[in-house]
Amino acid sequence: MLTWTDVTVRIRRGNPPPPRRVERSEAEWQALLPAAVFAVTRHSATERPFSSDMCGLFTPGRYHCACCDTFLFDAQTKFDSGTGWPSFTDPAAPDVVAYHGDDSHGMIRVETTCAVCDAHLGHVFPDGPPPSGLRYCINALALKKAK
Fold first, then answer.
1. Is the pTM here over 0.85, yes or no?
2. What's the average model confidence in pLDDT over 35-58?
């Protein structure tokens, strides 16, 4: 299980190698993905809060990257953060989510991306519940729910 210290170390020293890589051109991603998913995952857009039913979905299952289908989060780590985006306490594996410092929009945050295909997922914050204390605030459009 990752901690906030682990996240900040990865920002400074680099992320571990991913389990595999999926690389496509901008045009290939655009042809493969619906426009809204493309905007969020390839151009770091943010969907409107509370715009997805996924926020209130708490059935067992797995959440995969909408771009490359990498297993990113397990429903067992999902919680209701009240923020309007699906939230998780821990990624499915330590090498599937990458962390990057983000000082856009006049804020200092930690961006999360899919380590396999570089899709923008959302951000992680140190205000989540135990046991990790992390809140992965993820755009629903960046995820696919699998059983």
1. yes
2. 95
